[in-house]
Write a structure and sequence with these properties.
By secondary structure, this protein is of the alpha+beta class. Helix content is 22%, strand content 48%. It starts with a helix and ends with a strand.
């Protein structure tokens, strides 16, 4: 999990795929954190992406650092703990202008039952699960 976290953090932007009814949706994301031993992401509860994950928690993430890429499949599970919101927003203070812990809009999702595949054109692929 720490390797996935470090990779996504270094990339800065990664792409999150969700399901909207029977349509895939892909969005750029940039928040990634480890809270209470879980890899977490953040969005606004009012956003379509949050509603999509609440309705169908199956997600995929893809990121590329210029040499390797990561494909991660997971279940997005809401983390209702206000401390998770505080931890995330402390990690991304620029978001505090728009979000606050307990504001009813900040929502944290843990990536559970995750399988991450690291690949490149020059090295064998390998998988980590958490």
């Amino acid at each position: 999990m720490e390797e996935v976290y470090a990779f996504l953090k270094a990339c800065g932007t990664y792409y999150l795929a969700t399901v909207d009814g029977d349509h895939p949706r892909v969005l750029p994301f940039g928040t990634i954190d480890i809270f209470d031993g879980k890899l977490t992401i953040r969005t606004g509860r009012k956003k379509d992406v949050a509603q999509q994950m609440l309705e169908n928690p199956k997600v995929e993430i893809c990121a590329f650092d210029g040499k390797k890429w990561l494909r991660l499949c997971a279940m997005a599970v809401e983390v209702p703990d206000i401390k998770a919101q505080e931890h995330m927003l402390d990690s991304y203070p620029n978001l505090k202008a728009s979000y606050a812990p307990g504001d009813g809009n900040t929502i944290i999702f843990a990536l559970a039952d995750a399988k991450a595949v690291f690949s490149s054109f020059t090295e064998p692929s390998y998988t980590v699960s958490f």
